[in-house]
Amino acid sequence: MPRSFQYSPRTQIIFGNGSIEQLGELAAREGVAKVLLVTDPGIAKAGHAGRAMDFLKRAGLTGVLFDGVEENPTSKHVDAGVDVAQRESIELIVGLGGGSAMDCAKGINFLFSCGGEMKDYWGIGKATRDLLPMIAVPTTAGTGSETQSFALISDPVTHQKMACGDPSAACRVALLDPELTVSQPGHVTAATGTDAMVHAVETFVTRPRNSISTMFAREAWSLLSESYETVLTRPGDIEARGKMLLGASLAGLAIENSMLGATHSAANPLTAEFGVVHGAAVGVLLPHVVRFNASVVGEEYQELARLIALPVDGRPDSGEPLASYLEESFSKSGLPRTLKECGVTEEFIPGLAEGATEQWTAQFNPREVTKDDFENLYRSVLS
């Protein structure tokens, strides 16, 4: 019998080349006049922000630009955006860019709409009133933030990632335009694509997984695994770009309905303490987490392997075919393949393991994972 679950679709998904041209009319239908566009300097330099502002203007709306987002946004970036939002009395927010821009947009929405500090919303369902309507326009195929109701905002002092989630933080619309992703630098394509692949695998086996989440994760895995290596070697392949973008968004829907696991718990301290790019951190760790979890969810891992025609040995506790495939695929990304390459040495492992056990997603891993388990996991990818 399928597991019990609740599913409430909150975000309209519009997919297709050139779909960003609908931004103005989609914003205007919300009955607003002034829109805050949240993005980062790279997206502005690439011309995407200017185009978005033009589409808003054509629809008779006033666009206000905030391009102060940086990778792994902290509450300081959110506060800076809130200052702009308050000064301009904005009525709708557009997040344009990667996960950082979309998460920062959500963080701005929390504080602009409800007041207080970012840490006040750490957890689930802590918004004190409805948030402003939001539209997400991803320019990377990675986090899937456009289809999630969570904002990941870091504490500027401790670098702890605060997951702030509320149903009203979900975007009204996710505009998925594959053409916007072609301008990504190669290292961004690799890191975000790896992150999306990890999302598909992790969400397929978490403890809260259910019929809806596994459906999204399965389709995400099929699209992403088919296109991951293509976008690395042929970055202008728009069909592959589209599959990656749609796959990342579907994986985001899977996260929304099943959460993540030990890979993300172990990755976050690497980013906080050593500045390891998130996609690189999860890519290094996932194959070894698959091997660790296989005694509990080996059959699920073999299902993913069969979906992409990998040979499986029939043992229900074996994750090796999938783990080996992931290692081979990720080795083509140009990202680090060991912790030694990331500057991590043996002496740091106990501290990293302690930090991993404190991460929220560890509780959703299909196999219970202890501090000792995390230490062994880090050692397995040390060199």
Topology, number of strands: 9
Q: Please bin the fraction of helical residues.
A: 40-55%
Task: Tell me the strand order in the biggest sheet.
Answer: 1-9-6-4-2-3
Termini gap = 43 Å
Description:
The protein has two domains: 12-180, 3-Layer(aba) Sandwich (Rossmann fold); 186-380, Dehydroquinate synthase-like, alpha domain (Up-down Bundle), CATH 1.20.1090. The strands form two sheets. Strands 1-9-6-4-2-3 form a six-stranded parallel β-sheet, sandwiched between helices. The protein has a three-stranded mixed β-sheet with strand order 5-8-7. The chain has helices at 23-28, 41-45, 48-58, 75-88, 99-114, 186-203, 211-233, 238-258, 262-274, 278-307, 320-330, 349-357, 371-380, and strands at 12-15, 34-38, 62-66, 92-97, 123-124, 134-138, 150-154, 161-165, 173-176. The mean pLDDT is 96. The protein is α/β, with parallel strands linked by helices and 383 residues long. Strand 7 and strand 8 form a beta hairpin.
